[in-house]
């Protein structure tokens, strides 16, 4: 049994006229008649009662019509869905993101996606940079939004935002009233940082601040996201170094200060180097434009 036979049967069942059904199908009537006869032979029943004046469905034909109608409708919808996905108008895109992207970039991108591409669903997954790299390589993510991402073969990287790093201190710290904090100040303090495995590029970037001093800082606690870091700083466990975007959000018990020399950090968008679907490309374009707006606002 062929799909074409079912479509031909449905046309005749709905038109109850072989001539009109043939015109609807853009074929001549004789081949249509042949296909219907073959279908009846295969099923072993008569689907239509035919006279010189009218065509009607038999009870078996009516039952067969009712059974295959939803199947053909589902198939038509499936075909249309695939076409929409291929065209970048419908589907699901898996997006990983670091916690520092969750305050402005991710919300702005989700809002813009709903306005511009309502048929594309974003599957948002908060993940550290190291986890995102692994997930992209294993095809568990389509897009990663990472902090100071380490270069990796097979992935494509583009910078979304560049911002300063700032020192995060307990609000009652002796240096909390200073205008800026130097690397010499920071190396005297216990620090709360991310695990290297989770944020390798970011931690390496922070270590570069202390490189001119010829020694490493004293790290007393590792934490897996920036909210935990802020909480530990507020509790007096130590100081930390975070992206300046956190300065725009109040967190009780902490203050942020510029670091001498104004070291910077990059928020990056990462995709597979070779396979980017139309859906993924649409999401990339929206995230990139949202980042441009944020960057322009920060510069103004």
UniProtKB/TrEMBL annotation:
**PROSITE patterns in the cross-refs:** HTH_LYSR
Q: Which PANTHER family match?
A: LYSR FAMILY TRANSCRIPTIONAL REGULATOR (PTHR30346:SF17), TRANSCRIPTIONAL DUAL REGULATOR HCAR-RELATED (PTHR30346)
The UniProt record lists the HTH lysR-type domain at 1-58
Give the protein name, as stated in the record.
LysR family transcriptional regulator
* Record family assignment: Belongs to the LysR transcriptional regulatory family.
Q: Where is the signal peptide?
A: none
**Annotated Gene Ontology cellular component terms:** protein-DNA complex
Q: Which Pfam families match?
A: HTH_1, LysR_substrate
The UniProt keywords, alphabetically, are: DNA-binding, Transcription, Transcription regulation
Q: Which CDD domains match?
A: PBP2_LTTR_aromatics_like (cd08414)
Q: Which GO terms describe its molecular function?
A: DNA binding; DNA-binding transcription factor activity
- The UniProt record lists the keyword Transcription: yes
Q: Which Gene3D superfamilies match?
A: Periplasmic binding protein-like II, Winged helix-like DNA-binding domain superfamily/Winged helix DNA-binding domain
């Amino acid at each position: 049994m062929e799909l074409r036979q079912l479509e031909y049967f449905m046309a005749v069942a709905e038109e109850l006229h072989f001539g009109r059904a043939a015109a609807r199908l853009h074929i001549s009537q004789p081949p249509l008649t042949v296909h219907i006869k073959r279908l009846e032979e295969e099923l072993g029943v008569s689907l239509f009662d035919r006279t010189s004046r009218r065509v009607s469905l038999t009870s078996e034909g009516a039952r067969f019509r009712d059974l295959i109608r939803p199947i053909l409708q589902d198939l038509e919808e499936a075909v249309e869905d695939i076409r929409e996905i291929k065209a970048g108008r419908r589907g699901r895109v898996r997006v990983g993101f670091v916690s520092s992207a969750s305050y402005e970039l991710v919300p702005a991108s989700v809002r813009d996606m709903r306005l511009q591409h309502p048929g594309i669903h974003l599957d948002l997954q908060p993940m550290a940079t190291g986890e995102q790299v692994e997930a992209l390589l294993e095809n568990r993510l389509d897009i990663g939004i990472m902090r100071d991402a380490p270069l990796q073969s097979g992935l494509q990287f583009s910078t979304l935002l560049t911002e300063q790093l700032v020192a995060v201190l307990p609000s009652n710290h002796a240096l909390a009233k200073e205008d800026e904090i130097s690397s010499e100040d920071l190396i005297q303090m216990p620090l709360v940082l991310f695990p290297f495995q989770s944020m390798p590029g970011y931690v390496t970037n922070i270590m570069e601040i202390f490189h001119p001093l010829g020694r490493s800082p004293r790290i007393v606690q590792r934490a897996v996201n920036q909210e935990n870091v802020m909480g530990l700083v507020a509790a007096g466990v130590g100081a930390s170094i975070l992206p300046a975007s956190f300065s725009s959000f109040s967190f009780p018990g902490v203050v942020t200060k510029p670091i001498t020399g104004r070291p910077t950090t990059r928020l990056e968008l990462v995709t597979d180097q070779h396979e980017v679907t139309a859906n993924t490309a649409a999401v990339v374009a929206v995230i990139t434009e949202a980042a441009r707006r944020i960057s322009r606002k920060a510069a103004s």
